[in-house]
Amino acid sequence: MAQTTLTIRLSGELSDFVATSVGESGSYENISEYIRALIRRDKERVDQQAFERLKAELALAFSAPESSYAPLTAADVIKRNQDAHD
After folding, report:
1. Residue 55 and residue 65: Cα distance in Å, rounded?
2. Closest CA to 10 of 28, 34, 26
3. What does the domain layout of the chain look like in residue ranges?
4. How far apart are alpha carbons 30 and 28 in whole angstroms?
5. d(CA 29, CA 22)
6. Digitized pLDDT (tens) for each residue of the chain, 86 residues in all
7. Strand ranges for the chain from DSSP E
8. What is the SS3 assignment for 60?
9. Backbone torsions φ then ψ of 6, nearest 5 degrees
10. How far from 7 is each of 4, 10, 23, 31, 73, CA to CA, in Å?
11. In whole angstroms, what separates CA 72 from the centre of its chain?
């Protein structure tokens, strides 16, 4: 697994906030742990948004009337996708 080293600079209010979140009085042992937790939460948020978009698309597709569907062969789908990318 690849490892990335980041250097960030914080000052003022952001620096103070991080300082209160790390160490003996904070929820995190060190700044790296805090940053990893933030990134994980952000990734979960992005994944949840993608899941919600997918659910909405599926709900829309399943709510369409049966008459809106047309039979397609695999070749039809492949051609349609190829035409869309040309």
Report:
1. 18
2. 34
3. 15-64
4. 6
5. 6
6. 889 998 999 999 999 999 999 988 899 999 999 999 999 999 999 999 999 999 999 999 899 898 888 899 999 999 999 998 88
7. none
8. helix
9. -115, 145
10. 10, 10, 19, 11, 53
11. 32
